[in-house]
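Subject: Predicted fold for D-lactate dehydrogenase (cytochrome), 942 residues

User T.R. writes:
Posting the sequence so we have a shared reference for the thread.
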Amino acid sequence: MLAGKYAELYHQLKKQIPEDRLLHDDLNTLAFGADASFYRLTPKLVVKIYNEDEALFAIRSCAALKIPFTVRAAGTSLSGQAISDSVLLVIEPTEWRYYSINEDAALVTVQPALIGGKINQYLQPYKKKIGPDPASINAAFIGGIVANNASGMSSGVQKNSYHTLAGLRLILSDGTLLDTRDPESRRNFLASKKEMVNKLSELRQKVLQHPEWVEKIKKKYRLKNTTGYGLNALIDFEDPIDIIEHLMVGSEGTLAFISEITLKTVDDFSQKATSLIIFPDIETACKAIAPLRTCRVAAAELMDRASLRSVENKPLMPAYLKKLDEKATALLVETRANDEQTLNRQIAEITAALKDVPKVRPVQFTTDVKEITALWSVRKGLFPSVCANRPKGTTVVIEDIAVPYENLARAILDLQALFQKYRYDEAIIWGHAFDGNVHFVLIQDFTQPAEVERYANFMDELVRLVVEEYDGSLKAEHGTGRNMAPFVKLEWGEELYQVMREIKQLFDPQNIVNPGVLINDDPQLHLKSLKPMPRAHDLIDDCIECGFCENSCVSRSLTLSPRQRIVVYREMQSLKRSGEAPQRLAILNEKYNYHGNETCATDGLCALTCPVNIDTGKLIKELRHDQLSPLARWTAQKIASHMGSVTALVRFGLGALNIARKVLGNRLLVNGSHFLRAITFKKFPRISPYMPLPAPKISRSSHNGKKMPRQVVYFPSCITRSMGVLPDSEQAEPLTQVTFKLLQKAGFEVILPENVNGLCCGMAFSSKGFFEVGRQKAIELEAALLKASNNGQIPVLSDMSPCLYTMKENLDSRLKLFEPIAFSLKYLAPHLRFTPLDETITVFPVCSAKKMELEDALLQLARMCAKEVVVPETNCCGFAGDRGFNVPELNASGLKLLKEQLPPEVTHGYSTSRTCEIGLSEHGGLTFESILYLVDRVTQPK
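User M.O. replies:
I've generated the C-alpha cells; pasting them so everyone works from the same file.
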C-alpha cells in the first residue's frame, strides 16, 4: 500500500490519469523494476503516460511534493538509467507515436516512443535515415536514443544524436515547457527563466576563461564519449537555448523530459558491399585502420579471436573461422554508395589501401544481400552467443570504452591482460575500429561476495587504465548511468566535474529528476542494487532482460511484456525455493495467472527479436500444462477422440447463434454476452459481432476422385470445417468450397485425407498445455497425410497459417507442407491468369506467417491481385485461438491502432487465419477473410 507523500501523489494523479494506469501493486512494480542493465530498483509507483498533458501534470505533481521521478522509454539502457525506487513515468508506445517528415526529408520530427528502426522505415522511401544506429535500434525508443546520445556502427561521432539534433520540446523539473524550435517559446523561456539563463551563460563564460578546460573538452569529444554531461554544448554554442537543447543529449533523463525531437536525416545508400577481412593479429588489424580512414568506409567492426570463436559453430558462419590462428583478428568492413560504379570504385580504393597490410586471406567484397547478411550475422551473433553459453544464474556485463584509434591495438592487449588477471576467461572483444570504441562482455556471478569484489577490483583497474594510460572515454556509447557515475570525476577532473554538478543544480535544484544517475558521490554505487538472475526454468534462463522482445508483444500495453513475465517468474521461483514470504508468493502467483498466463498470446514473436531466441510463450504453455486438472486432461482427451462430433457441435452452436442474432439483433446479442461475462466472472465467452455462420460439413466422397493434371492433398483445418462466412460477407461460399474451386481451376485433383473430419494439427490442445493430446493428434494427422500424399510426393495445402506452422514443427519432414501464401505463389500462379483489382486492399500477416518469413510473399501475392495494397504496422492481433473470445481485451489491445492505420479507400482485408479474421474485422471496421478468396476472385485458368 502507498503511504505518506506517495499516497498523496496517487490521489493527485488520479484526477487526470485513470487508476488502471497508476500501478503500485507488487507484481507491476517488480516487473517495471528491471531494465537492460544488471541493476534493479523497485519503484513505489508506476505511471503510464499517454500524452504531453499527462506528462506535465505528473511532473508538476511530483515537483510539488518533492518526489523523485524517472521517465522511462524502452528500458534498453545498459547502465541503469531507466529504473527508479521512487516514481517511474513510463511513456506508452501506442500513444507517443506522432511523426512528420519535411518536404525534402532533411528533417524528421518524432515523439519519444517511436522506435529508431521504425523511423528509418518511414524515411526509407526518401533514401534517408536517422544518424544514430545503435545495435538496439529496433527496440530502443528515439527518446532514449537521444537522451543517451546513442551512436552505433556507422554513425561515428559526426552522425550521433548530438550532431544531428535540430530541435527539442522539453518539460523541465518544475513543469516549464520549452520548444527550442519555436521562436515564441524561446522568448517566453528567456523571459520567465532569466536567472537560470544568466547562470548558464555565466557557466559558459567560466569554461571559456580556462583554455585548458576548453582544449580538454574538445579532445574528449573527438572520441565517442557519453560519460557525464555534454560539456561540448558550452563551447559549441553561444545562445543559451541552443546550449540547453544540446545539454539534453546524453543527459540520460536527469535534466528534463524530452517530449518531441527533430533530427537532421542522413543519406541511406542503396548499394552496399561487405568484406570480412582477417588479419594475423590485433596489431596488424589496427594498423589497417589508418589507411581505411582515407577511404569511403561506412563501418569497420573489429572482432578478436575469442569473439570469432564464440560464433564459429553457428549457422551461416564461414567455415574458415574454425581454422584461424589464436591471434587472428577480423575487421568487418562495409562501403556504401548510390550507384554500382561508385561502389566498385570504393571497393577498389579499399583493396588498394590494404595492399601492403598483411592478411590471412585475400580481401573479397560481396554485394550479394544473403552473403552480406551472413557476414553481419558474425558480428551480430557475438553478444547472443556469450549470453546463451554463460552458466545459469550468472549475469552478462557489457561495457564500452573508447581510446584514440592510434592506441587501439595497445589498449586491447592491455584489456586482454586484465581479463587474464581477473580470470574472465569467456570475455570477448569487438568494437567500432574507426572510433577506437571497444565493447567487451564479461560473465559475472553477483550472488557471491568474492565475485562482487573481483568485479570491483577489475573495474577500478579498468578505469585507471582507460583514464590514466589512454585519456579515453569510460563510456563511449552506453551512457554513464549508475555503472560509471562513481568515476565521472576521475575521467573529467575535479573542475569540470564541478561544472557538471552546477548544470544538474541549475536544471534540477530539488534533485528529483532521475536522481543518482550520472552525478553521484557514492564510490560504491556501481556495486549496489545488483539485479538477481536466479535459475528459474531452462526455457528462460538465458534471458538477460534486455527488452528487445517487448516491441513484438501484443500484451505489452495491457499487462506484461515477455521480459516482465520472466522477471516476475524468476522472483516467484526464487521465493518458492527459499520458502520466504509465502504470502507474497501467493499474491504474485494469483496475479500472474492473469497478467502472465491468460493474457499471453503464446504467439512466439518475442523469439524473433530476442538476441538468444527465447520464446516466452513456451514457458507459459509449460505453466498451463502444469496447472491442468485431471478433469481438464480427461475432457481434452475426449474432445480429441471425437473431433468430428465436436466440429459438428460447433457448427450447431454457430447456427443457433445466428438465429439468436436474427431475433435479437447483433447489438443486443453482444451486450448480452458482456452481461453474462460479468455475472460469471469472465467464464462466459464474449460474442463478437463478427461471429461467423456455420460451415457446411465436408464430405470426402463428394470431392475425391475428379482426375486432373496435377494433384494436391487438401487438409481443411478444424476451424474452417466449423466456421463459415461472416454474417455480412459478400462471399456466399465458405472457405473450404472456395479452396476446392480454386484448386480445380488451377488444374489440381484435390485429395482429402482419410477421416478428414476427425483430424486436427494439435495446436488447439498444445497451446493450452495439453501436450500429450496435441502430440496424439499430430501423429494421427501425420499418418493420414503421408498416406494421402504418397509419402510426401504430393504437396499438402492447409488453409490456415497457424495450423501449417504447427504441422511443420511436428510432422514428418518428408511432407511438403504449404499454407495459402506460399502454395498460391508456387503452385497456383503458374497455372492461373491474374487480373488485378482496381481497388485498395489490406493484408495482415498473422504471427505464424511472420515466423515462417512469409510477410514479403504475402505482399507479393496481394500485389498480383490488387493495384494498391496497405499493410498495417500491428505485430499480432492478439486473438490467439480462443483468447479473442475468453480474453477479448487482449485482441482489443493488439488491434488498438488498426482502424486508424487503414485509409478510408481500403475495401477489403485478407489474411490466413479464420479466428484472427474475426478480430481483424471487428477492430478494423471492414471484412477480413482468407487470401484464397482474393486469389479466386481475380484469377482465371491459363
